[in-house]
């Protein structure tokens, strides 16, 4: 039983079906993207997981091939020109696509593989039984399974059921607002990130002469979100008035996606236990362009562990052991990334001086651990124990 139908949940359903488990996925919302989300990127490590799940080509067709990344200072100076989400020479290019398109593609694959998807059900309780775990939903519906996977995001309902003392998300000093501009000439295949005075600004060329953009605004206190699109654009125009390219893109915006607050979560001390495990943002929100890729890795490694071990308890312990060190390193990298987007004037000047040299000399070595990682394949049609689901 999988709680949450986003990237982690849908990928888990695919992986579990591939090892022969019966899977029912419960999602609170019907729409793949819910009420939030714009575009996201998948790096080479996440794309290798999609290849193992036999859904890589479908995701590539749904997105944009983005082989390169350029980083710019507020003044428009080029700080770095590197491969996007991969090492130089890797032919598996990063893919950028709308979150809803990724989720829709993964859900379609899960359904085709034989998973059951139930929408409109929100988890409120989970109780371990002799044979597994019993879930209770807000509608009054109950369901039983050998294993419950919490893949329900940073505001996970599963996390506090696994550990009542689990940390809760806190505002991270950034909010994100995205949109689509028209009529701005932008080189295809390049993911551009400007380290602006008031936070990062991302843009890339999209089909039909469009430009997808996202402003990650540094703001110490959570902003009031109830503004109109026109009010948001005027606010952003003021915040990015010093940056030439972001300013032009904002001025040509034809469609705005509603803003979302960005949150951080302290290390989650309990990510698995008994018959429950956490995946993706429910257990370790990271960001830094790796949220979806890390969720995909979780899904594959968990299924591998379940296929290899004789019991659920042994499988969950193996899953935790396989993921903990890598996740901790990624969380640290994501924190550094977030700090760079909220840097003050002095830190920005130092970054602009040091970054061109650091990128040229150290980028490949510094990112090799992340982008070259390969979780491997799944054995077909075999589980290490009894995996079943029942609902009422």
Please explain how this structure is put together.
- This protein is α+β, with helices and mostly antiparallel strands.
- Helices cover 36% and strands 28% of the residues.
- It contains 10 helices and 20 strands.
- It has helices at 7-18, 44-52, 56-62, 99-112, 158-162, 229-239, 244-251, 291-308, 312-341, 345-371; strands at 2-3, 24-27, 39-42, 64-66, 68-73, 78-83, 94-98, 116-119, 123-128, 133-137, 142-145, 148-150, 170-182, 190-196, 199-206, 210-218, 253-264, 272-273, 276-278, 389-391.
- The chain has a 7-stranded mixed beta sheet, with helices on both faces.
- Strand 18 (272-273) and strand 19 form a beta hairpin.
- It is globular, with a radius of gyration of 21 Å.
The spatial strand order of the largest sheet comes to 6-5-14-15-16-13-17
N→C terminal distance:
13 Å
Which class best fits the helix and strand makeup?
alpha+beta
Mean pLDDT value: 91
Instruction: Report the helical percentage.
Output: 25-40%
Which stretches of 5+ consecutive residues score pLDDT under 50? none
- The ordered H/E elements are EHEEHHEEEEHEEEEEHEEEEHHEEEHHHE
Overall outline: globular
Largest sheet: 7 strands, mixed
SS elements, strand count? 20
Gyration radius (Cα, Å) is 21 Å
Tally the helices.
Answer: 10
Instruction: Give the DSSP E fraction (strand runs of 2 or more residues).
Output: 25-35%
